[in-house]
Amino acid sequence: MLAKRIIPCLDVDNGRVKKGINFVNLVDIGDPAAIAAEYERQGADELVFLDITATNQKRQTMKEVVESVSRRVFMPLTVGGGIKSVAQMQLLLKAGADKISLNTAAVVEPQLITKGAQKFGRQCIVVAIDVKKNSATGQYMVFTSGGQHGTGLDALDWAEQAVSLGAGELLVTSMDKDGTKSGFDTELYRELTERVDVPIIASGGAGKLNDFTAVFCKGKVDGALAASVFHYGELTISGVKDTLKKAGVNVR
Amino acid sequence: MLTIIDYDAGNTYNVKKAFDFLGVKTRLTADPAEILASRGLILPGVGAFAPAMQTLRTRGLDTVIKKAVMQKTPLLGICLGMQLLFESSSEYGEHKGLGLIPGKVIALPRKKGYKVPQMGWNENELIQKNSVFSFVAQQYTYFVHSFYADCDNKYIVSRVDYSVPVPAIVQNKNVYGLQFHPEKSGNVGIKILQTFVKEIIYNDNSGN
């Protein structure tokens, strides 16, 4: 049986991991390869690197990050953040990435999903969707540009469209839950997993061990992503997996 | 020398990095003489069956690979490279493969609860207890594929449970194949590559 995946997410700015990371046993705390190796040791199933570099000029360094991580860490690597062309995808895949995550660019130019899927296979193309619930209507809406821009798109419709265009996986972040540590939006994921049949990765809201059990059991997702709870050592990946095992969720 | 057969396959560099990590020297080449003089061969691969087979043929590599196998050179196919070892594939029409392992590559059946492609970590069930790869028992390896090798049990070293039982490691004499990506399967994957080099290439424990 396929194992459910636990995925730490790292923000990379100009080649260095940003946002505090508190691993006591690491000498160089900002080095993506060192942090990736530590997560591999803890039992991470996959890593997501998000390039938060503001300028295009510095984006070349992301290729070097992927290159150095893939020399040391042997697990699937997803790279996202500001990727706008097939050429940029190719550069990162050749450097060692396994999947490319598209967010704003996919909404601006949906054909980019198809172009990427045709060239590299749909398993390479992840569409990341940032979702906010409209409190008046209860509708899940899509936001882009780091959550600043409301697109007016219905999140479930967009998810379905992204898959029909060639997305092989969806990474869906609940903006309402992100940073709250109050648990994943299991209702959102339950609705999503009923609508599309590609793997869904849940993101936003991880705070305690049982949040992971809930999102797998009730949300029916394939993977769960978290950043700060792992970075600060509030939760360990092995601790999360032990809890999941006890709840009967299949993990590696 | 260990040769990685160069036909522009997508995972070539990551496979090479895994051997670099192990301190195993590899040569990336499409040169027939170099391939035939190698102690061991790696056939990587990602993507669709037909274009990959076409590239091998255009470069004359299909004949070279078969000749090397007849000389008893150990060969390891990875992912699509594993599927190419079989007689045929039904991915987008019927296509002939290298025919080094009896069997056909067919689509993973659609079944409720099983997404296609199979993407993620799955647990190996060991079939051949005496294999040099017996340490994969109950170990998870990383899969990304929509087609699988339908072959006789005698060629299956280990398999994983999906919509059907999926052969994970296959072997026919000196020809080996991995449906998963060892270069993305953590310590177990690295150990599989190391074992191929140490136990199969340099101990001539190739089942001949």
Provide an overview of this structure.
The complex is a heterodimer of chains A (about 250) and B (about 210). Chain A has about 250 residues and is α/β, with parallel strands linked by helices. Chain A is about 35% helix and about 25% strand. Chain A has ten helices and eleven strands. Chain A has helices at about 30-40, 60-70, 85-95, 105-110, 110-120, 155-165, 185-195, 210-215, 230, 235-245; strands at about 5-15, 15, 45-50, 75-80, 100, 125-135, 140-145, 150-155, 170-175, 200-205, 225. Chain A has an eight-stranded parallel barrel, surrounded by eight helices. In chain A, β7 and β8 (about 150-155) form a beta hairpin. In chain A, α1 runs parallel beside α2. The longest helix of chain A is centred in the first third of the chain and has 13 residues, at about 60-70. Chain A is globular. Chain B is α/β, with parallel strands linked by helices and about 210 residues long. Chain B has a single domain, classed as Rossmann fold (3-Layer(aba) Sandwich). Chain B contains six helices and 14 strands. Chain B has helices at about 10-20, 30-35, 50-60, 60-70, 80-85, 185-200, and strands spanning about 1-5, 25-30, 40-45, 75-80, 85-90, 95, 100-105, 120-125, 125, 140-145, 145-150, 155-160, 165-170, 175-180. In chain B, β13 (about 165-170) and β14 form a beta hairpin. The longest helix of chain B is centred in the last third of the chain and has 16 residues, at about 185-200. The interface of A and B includes residues 2 and 93 of A. Chain B: Pfam families: GATase. Chain B: It is found in: Cytoplasm. Chain B: Heterodimer of HisH and HisF. Chain B: This is Imidazole glycerol phosphate synthase subunit HisH.
